[in-house]
Amino acid sequence: xxxLWLNYPGAFVAIEAAAxxxxxxxxxxxxxxxxxxxxxxxxxxxxxAGDFEARVLAIPEHDSATELLHAVNDMIDGxxxxxxxATAAMDAVHHNKYYRRIxxxxxxxxxxxxxxxxxxxxxxxxxGFGSSNVKPPNWRAx
Length: 142
What we know:
This protein is mostly helical. It is 64% helix and 0% strand. It has one domain (2-107). The longest helix has 40 residues, at 9-48.
């Protein structure tokens, strides 16, 4: 506004051009982020359908969505490890091999608590602890 009062239209045009350029860069950045979000949505849908090989690829290093996309991939890795371990344990049970346990080393913490609790309950019930009020020595509340 001050530039109009000074009757200097060249500066006003330059400011408008800079604003349009900034707007164009912002639209380019928003389009890139929208593309990454669509890719993440597609990967999540593939995971929901059971395809644990899906990952978000080509994550930019310095973007606002970088941490989110890496977290999605980390979550998929943990779930994939749990599914593989549970599948291996169930395959062993199918072949009457009951010594194969779900190994919690590669799993996320909450994913592997449930199998550990059920294994503890199963051992307690086999040893007679489950049928009485007597608890095994290092019993954890479920």
